[in-house]
Specification:
Number of helices: 19
Distance between the termini: 31 Å
Number of domains: 3
Strand order of the largest sheet: 9-10-11-1-12
Number of strands: 24
Helix content: 25-40%
Length: 571
């Protein structure tokens, strides 16, 4: 493999290597090259996760998904109105934008109102659903009035966790942007000091190969004594790339973090460069459990995937142990439900344990699969594929071109399905997301996101998201195009309760009594992210590990700021 070095452009401040953190992969998007080189408007569509969200933007609050800790940041606290009809948020005194302008409640109100009323905002759908109006009471107090009772508003919109949380924009700059030009406004002009940010890093370079952010010594949090300046003085983000390239860059110490490797590739790296660690210090299960368990989704509007018996037959034909062994080198675990095994989620796994004995979503049983297909009138042709009325059951599966939790599964799942009589194939096209959104994909390997209760995943199966036919744009996350009105009623009641309400559990049980027999989405594996962390230039004890989970190591997530704040250089 030929490795292209990543030099820092000439003319910039000389920063030592042990003060420069270099990250490659960025969650799998923008493979090979950045396409958003002059786009730093956090409300524009299609942005890469290359520093703007996690190094330059900050949350009102952060949530540590591994420990359950809520961390007040640019806000100090919040209080819901009676009946959850609104919320008051108190903004921390002393927060500033990078141009010295105070960050105030007026910025929060402006951002929410803009996203609420302007459909060009990438946050419009999420904000518009529950926001009536945000009002700055004074510089440090914002009140948000809801369109109806919304006990999950803060959790869904105001807390930075993984990829979730509304990024705040400077009112004093964006208020001059015409509404119809929001999506095109780049918020990029080095001569003006744009992008203007609150975080401890400023943009110093952007091109198709890299984004470079340098530390701001005038960061508000250091000025008021809230946080120390990070010892990481420079951040370099590289675009998506394949595992072999990332492995070689780790071996030669040209990068410090890579967007996950399969276990065999991680072991190959360590064999040539022992200065590596993972969440479990290089021992099984190696990585951290991400919030994103993976499943095989189907377009359930498209026959024969509209038939639950066919969906179960597909599930029974998949040997998940083979998927884990041959796809991931043993680096995942079987997943029966589409949410992780985090401590707050355990009661939801336990609640349906008896149902899973009857509806075992992890069972590999070719005999049951065949019986279900024969019961639906299918027979095998001369090549062993299921046919009915002269047509084979074809399943074309799409997934990410490069994603360590999905891409390795695709060929093994496909082979399992073919062995089970389904004429399956797979591809990893660059437009795979469009194919899913538009309904052109038969099947897709995709993840799910819950942290404290299953409601965020379950509401992806609501009827309101489903199109009339099998083809047609569908709103995220309704890719499955499945509808059951009784199921909807239980999920709607869950949504009307706070995420930590004891009333959620019995409603969840009722919903799963419908979901499991129907199986609109086929669980496959966990999403254990084996993310190598290089100890050549950064102290091993300062990286996040299972015994020091100050944050998970997903450097593409909004919470990555806490990695940058905690790393200590090797002297």
């Amino acid at each position: 493999v030929e490795v292209t070095p990543t030099p820092v452009p000439l003319g910039y401040t000389d920063v030592p290597r042990n003060r420069t953190l270099i990250m490659a992969g960025l969650g799998g998007e923008h493979p090979g090259a950045f396409t958003d080189i002059e786009q730093f408007n956090a409300h524009a569509p299609g942005l890469s996760r290359s520093g703007l969200y996690q190094a330059a933007s900050e949350g009102l609050f952060y949530f540590n998904m591994l420990t359950g800790e809520l961390i007040p940041w640019m806000a100090t606290d919040y209080e819901y109105d009676d009946g959850y009809t609104g919320v008051t948020v108190n903004i921390r005194d002393g927060v500033e934008w990078s141009d010295g302008t105070p960050f105030t409640a007026h910025d929060v109100a402006f951002t929410l109102n803009m996203a609420n009323t302007n459909p060009l905002s990438a946050r419009h759908g999420a904000v518009n659903q529950w926001t009536d109006e945000a009002t700055a009471i004074d510089d440090h107090t914002v009140h948000i009035k809801f369109t109806g009772p919304s006990p999950r508003y803060v959790w869904d919109l105001l807390i930075f966790r993984a990829d979730i949380g509304v990024p705040w924009i400077p009112k004093h700059i964006f208020e001059d942007v015409p509404e119809d030009e929001l999506a095109e406004f780049g918020h990029y002009d080095p001569a003006k000091g744009w992008p203007v940010v609150t975080g401890p890093y400023r943009l110093v370079h952007t091109d198709v190969e890299k984004k470079i952010w340098d530390r701001r010594d005038d960061w508000w949090a250091a000025k008021i004594g809230f946080q120390d300046l990070p010892q990481v003085e420079r951040l370099i983000f590289l675009p998506g790339m394949n595992e072999i390239t990332m492995a070689q860059l780790l071996i030669t110490n040209e990068i410090d973090m890579a967007f996950s490797l399969t276990v065999p590739n991680y072991k190959a790296v360590v064999a040539q460069n022992p200065n590596m660690t993972t969440h479990y210090y290089g021992e099984p299960p190696f990585g951290y459990e991400d919030w994103w368990p993976v499943g095989l989704g189907l377009n359930t509007k498209r026959p024969p995937f509209d038939n639950k018996n066919v969906r179960w037959a597909i599930s029974y034909s998949i040997n998940r142990d083979e998927v884990i062994e041959f796809g991931f080198g043993g680096g995942q675990i079987v997943q029966q439900l589409p949410w992780p095994y985090y401590a707050p989620m355990q009661k939801y796994h336990d609640e349906v344990a008896d149902l899973l004995e009857t509806y075992d979503t992890s069972e590999y049983n070719p005999e049951k699969s065949a019986a279900l297909m024969e019961g639906e009138g299918y027979t095998r042709d001369g090549e062993g594929f299921w046919v009915k009325d002269g047509e084979r059951v074809g399943i074309h599966i799409v997934t990410f071109p490069q994603h360590p939790s999905t891409t390795p599964a695709a060929p093994v799942v496909t082979q399992n399905l073919r062995r089970g009589g389904f004429d399956a194939s797979f591809s990893t096209p660059t437009d795979f997301i469009d194919q899913i959104f538009q309904g052109h994909a038969d099947g897709f390997i995709w993840g799910h996101g819950s942290m404290v209760d299953p409601e965020p995943v379950l509401k992806g199966y609501r009827c309101e998201l489903v199109t009339e036919g099998e083809i047609g744009f569908i709103a995220y996350p309704g890719f499955y195009r499945w509808c059951n009105e009784e199921f909807d009623s239980y999920v709607e009641q869950m949504t009307a309760l706070p995420e930590d309400s004891p009333g959620v559990l019995p409603l969840y049980r009722k919903a799963m009594e419908i979901w499991l027999p129907e199986l609109p989405d086929i669980p496959l594996t966990s999403s254990i992210i084996t993310l190598p962390m290089n100890t050549t230039y950064w102290e091993e004890d300062s990286w996040p590990h299972y015994d020091n989970q100050y944050v998970h190591e997903g450097f593409w997530h909004r919470t990555a700021l806490h990695i940058f704040l905690n790393l200590e250089p090797v002297e």
